[in-house]
Description:
The complex is a heterodimer. By secondary structure, chain A is of the alpha/beta class. Chain A is about 50% helix and about 15% strand. Chain A folds into two domains: about 60-180 and about 345-425, D-Maltodextrin-Binding Protein, domain 2, CATH 3.40.190.10; about 190-330 and about 430-460, Periplasmic binding protein-like II (D-Maltodextrin-Binding Protein, domain 2), CATH 3.40.190.10. The longest helix of chain A is centred in the first third of the chain and has 48 residues, at about 1-50. Chain B is mainly alpha-helical. Chain B has two domains: about 1-75, no CATH class; about 80-310, MetI-like (MetI-like fold). Chain B has 13 helices and two strands, in the order ααααααββααααααα. Chain B has helices spanning about 10-45, 50-55, 75-80, 90-120, 125-135, 140-155, 180-205, 205-215, 220-230, 235-250, 250-260, 265-275, 285-310, and strands at about 155-160, 165-170. Chain B has a two-stranded antiparallel ribbon with strand order 1-2. In chain B, a hairpin with a 4-residue loop joins strand 1 (about 155-160) and strand 2 (about 165-170). In chain B, helix 3 crosses helix 13 (about 285-310), helix 4 runs parallel beside helix 7 (about 180-205) and helix 12 packs antiparallel against helix 13 (about 285-310). The longest helix of chain B is centred in the N-terminal third of the chain and has 35 residues, at about 10-45. At the A-B interface, helix 1, strand 1, helix 3, strand 2 and helix 4 of A face helix 2, helix 4, helix 6, helix 12 and helix 13 of B.
Amino acid sequence: MKKRWHWLIAMLAVMSLVAAACATDEGVSTTTAAETTETTAAETTETTAAETTETTAAEMDLSGTTVTVFGSESSDEEAGAMQDALDVFAEANGMTIVFTGARDFSDQINAQAAGGNPPDIAIIPQPGKVADFAREGFILPLPDDVLATLEENWDSAWVAFGNVDGVQYGVNNKSDIKSLVWYSPSAFADNGYTIPESWDALKALSAQMVADGNIPWCIGIESGGATGWPFTDWIEDLTLRFEGADYYDQWVAHDIPFSDPAMVAIWEEVLAEWNAPGNVFAIDGSIAATAFGANGQPLADGTCMMHRQASFFSAFLPEGTPTGPDGISVFYFPAGPNGEKPVLGGGTLATAFRDAPEVWAVMQYYASAEYANERQKAQQIRKDGELSGFLSANQNQDLSNYLPLEQEMISIMLDAEVLRFDGSDLMPAAVGAGTFWTEGTSAVNGDKSVADAVAAIDASWP
Amino acid sequence: MTATTTAGRRPLGPRIYGFLRSIPTWVLWILVVLWTIPTFGLLVNSLRTRDAQRTSGWWLAWQDGANGFDFPTLQNYEAVLGAEATGGLANGLLNSASIAIVATIIPIAIAAFAAYAFAWIDFRGREWLFIGTIALLAVPTQVSLIPLLQAYSSGVRMTIPIIEKTVTIIPDMGLAGTIPAVWLTHTGFALPFAIFLLHNYIAGLPKDLFESARIDGADHFKIFWKLVVPLSIPVLAAFAIFQFLWTWNDYLIALTMIGGNRVALPATVVVASLAGEFGLREHLLTAGAFVITVVPLVVFFALQRFFVRGITAGSVKG
């Protein structure tokens, strides 16, 4: 009896030691891998240094260094492709770059920064958070050479997302375009529908579809704790169209309240389109209870004709759905009354927490066209050649890495006359990731009038 | 007393009694079924494809074949086991084991000594120290996580006001982002409860045992190892199960203390990350949950034998 207990304890102890040993083993093996590649990398840099004078990375000796990167992209395809792209750079320089993706990134990065254990680089999806970190002194302004690479490769409208009070902190990493309507070109052709060029034409089209016995929209805004965000995207897109970029900026900064009559009118406009009889397909008729990811299936099988969602929606289409002219495609969410063609965008920004040559070398790599190319290639391989879900608005990237549909999205992004970041990501979290979602959902459900909902949001503004 | 009952028909009184007696059993059965339904649904969904999961609820899984989906399929399990992005699940499971096993052994070891001392060693301030220890039960984990992380990453220093001298209370040990940081945190939060639980048990052991042992010339060390530990096996085992399950399933502490160090993340964090941004791969969580659950189940059933024996072994053998 007693012996058995001893055995058991000994066994447990051995197991934990083995586990610990394995954990450290991995660390050791990565460093030795770095060391072994170091020699080859040193040789290659010697030979190619003369040819590639452009990258500062080649000038510096980065071998043996390690950079940790932390971000919100955590699925195997996204985080894996990120790591693949980083490995290309790491191997060329004999260094180690480790990317970790966390689902609770937004909460986690706050804890890490406050706890004094931040990563070297964090890839932040909200410019609002970049601004917070910059003002609290957690992240570092870009040095001149990184800034130069960024400005060389990215349009100033995109670069501006990482700018806080005139100082550049963020390097654009991934770009999303939100002003898109997903549809089936063949279904449109069969019914004789044409792509609408204005919001009024879009409303007329949806009325026509209802008259023809089709369901125009697939809409579902359920997304767990973030339920309601697709609604906020509609509001933002229409605000840009109806009231223009200046109004949008003031609204995001809360110089114009949610209860502004023009804003209330936009809410009413969206809800009128959503609540019109026969206009929307949602599971059990409840928009708020239909998962936003569940819109892919009915769109693909033709239950509904259109779905307004960002570029990353491609990942939610059922497996094997053809895309492009013969499958599911996108058109630009049409212009507003004044004919201006604004684009609502999103994306992630790389920010540096540690001041070291190897960190800035990686930041510079993020700003470069090489990163966009490597990332897209890796992610497309991981998606078996389908839409990768990754887009970059890098101007100098190789567009041939993208499928035609993705190229179309990128051209919409690059041609944008007015580009604005998703407003809810710019607002304080209490509103942008809080009441804007919840009160919007209440208004969609009809639990609250628009007037009550916007008043509640205004009251919650910190 | 009239004996009018026919064979096989019991009198009304005992029948009602029997019926009433069976009610708790039935209630328990209903609860068991109700509690199991979500787990069962999870199991069914873990065998369905992503698009099937998005199209209908698990109770409609039998229609999957007709809808053109594979069912049952192991592709979710393959994706989970083959995951590599967050350090991989195999690595995560090993990390979970090295966290849970050590974070179970350390608090038990400390708490057993402490509980014995609180119960049977008479020292000054014993009561107050015990009350102070138990009062720590009220400290919520969440509020102390970030200060703890700061202590791990950069130590604790205090500046004495008048002489303006900074004293290092805890040196910078660079523990942040490592598994030992998780051990220490789990140990700290487990100790008050462990001491409380073990103290109640150890204090209830018969006094005669200790007196006779002392007469036989045993010191505290010998009494602890030869008497207290063997007699306390049931309570030690009970606490070990709780603590192991708690640390195995822990997400918050591990994620906060380890953060961006992919190599050291436990399986819970790895599986949660599989879902990806916007819940892109949420369908993998079903299979991931089962893979993670296997280990505690194995531990529980493997050790069950020991627990039962520990309880029935009895304290005073003739």
